């Protein structure tokens, strides 16, 4: 994770929450009041966010100390202690909510990713995310997917070419769009095409793309169509795939399944912070 970017993100989030000051903590506690927070998992899941915890509390109180009992990617049980944070009481209370909000969301994503991997049941197919992330939180959410055992799709519009239905419609055809891309693109950037018909599949293969995505296709359709794809082209399935029907794609033969629900509608993992000592 980019720790410089993490710090900048945390600064923005704390400024949003603090405004000019914490009128509650600043009026009750002095700089000499010290305390310890214990972080506790209130449900079972996959933990993610140790760097957020360390950087967040340190940003609010540079003398704070974090002792984690778990590491990113580890399974935690309901009631398990995740770590201790000691420092100035006012700093602990100012940082607590922002840090917990982020860690709960990241842990929820890691947990959902783990469930998706269990549902697909192993094999060659890898679970990956999409660009359907929360604006401002993409780095953290994609990191959480990795902690859950998944893989990252492209990070944004800048690191891979991906021709979707609207690109193809505006360009006129897959072949024309690929020709324009290849005439200008550097050799280090991959090209993926989203296809919905057998005709588009043939066109993408003829254009020698790097990845073909079967968009909103049934497992049966994918099993049939994938037989035409040369071994040098990677394959992906996406669209209309849920945790409930994911197992049906287990044997369709694709290299990747990209799932928007890992990030766009995930439930946070419930984590609390309690005073251990003052």
Short description:
The protein is an alpha/beta fold.
If you had to describe this structure to a student in words, what would you say it looks like?
It is a single chain. With 278 residues, the chain is of the alpha/beta class. The protein has 2 domains: 3-116 and 266-277, Quinolinate phosphoribosyl transferase, N-terminal domain (Aldehyde Oxidoreductase, domain 3), CATH 3.90.1170; 120-264, TIM Barrel, CATH 3.20.20. Helices cover 40% and strands 20% of the residues. The chain has 10 helices and 12 strands. The strands form 3 sheets. Strands 6-11-10-9-8-7 form a 6-stranded parallel beta sheet. A 4-stranded antiparallel beta sheet has the order 3-5-1-12, covered by helices on one side. Helix 9 links the parallel strand 9 and strand 10 (234-238). The longest helix has 32 residues, at 89-120. It is elongated and about 70 Å long. The protein starts with a helix and ends with a strand.
In the sheet with the most strands, the strands line up as 6-11-10-9-8-7
The portion of residues assigned to helices is 25-40%
- How many domains comprise the coordinates? 2
Mean pLDDT: 96
């Amino acid at each position: 994770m980019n720790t410089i970017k993490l710090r900048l993100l945390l600064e923005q989030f704390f400024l949003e929450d603090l405004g000019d000051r914490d009128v509650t903590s600043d009026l009750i506690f002095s700089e000499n009041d010290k305390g310890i927070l214990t972080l506790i998992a209130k449900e079972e899941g996959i933990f993610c966010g140790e760097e957020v915890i360390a950087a967040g509390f340190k940003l609010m109180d540079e003398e704070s100390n974090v002792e984690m009992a778990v590491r990113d990617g580890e399974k935690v049980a309901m009631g398990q202690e995740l770590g201790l944070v000691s420092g100035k009481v006012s700093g602990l209370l100012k940082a607590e909510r922002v840090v917990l909000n982020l860690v709960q969301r990241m842990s929820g994503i890691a947990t959902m990713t783990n469930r998706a991997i269990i549902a697909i049941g192993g094999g060659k197919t890898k679970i990956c995310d999409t660009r359907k992330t929360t604006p401002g939180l993409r780095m953290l959410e994609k990191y959480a997917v990795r902690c859950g055992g998944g893989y990252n799709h492209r990070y944004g519009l800048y690191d891979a070419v991906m021709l979707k239905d609207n690109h193809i419609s505006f360009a006129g055809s897959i072949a024309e769009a690929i020709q324009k891309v290849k005439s200008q693109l550097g050799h280090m950037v991959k090209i993926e095409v989203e296809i919905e018909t057998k005709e588009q599949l043939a066109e993408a293969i003829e254009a020698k793309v790097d990845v073909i995505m079967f968009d909103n296709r049934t497992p049966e359709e994918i099993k049939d169509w994938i037989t035409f794809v040369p071994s040098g082209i990677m394959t992906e399935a996406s669209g209309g795939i849920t945790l409930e029907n994911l197992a049906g794609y287990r044997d369709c033969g694709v290299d990747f399944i990209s799932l928007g629900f890992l990030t766009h509608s995930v439930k946070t993992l419930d984590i609390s912070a309690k005073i251990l000592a003052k």
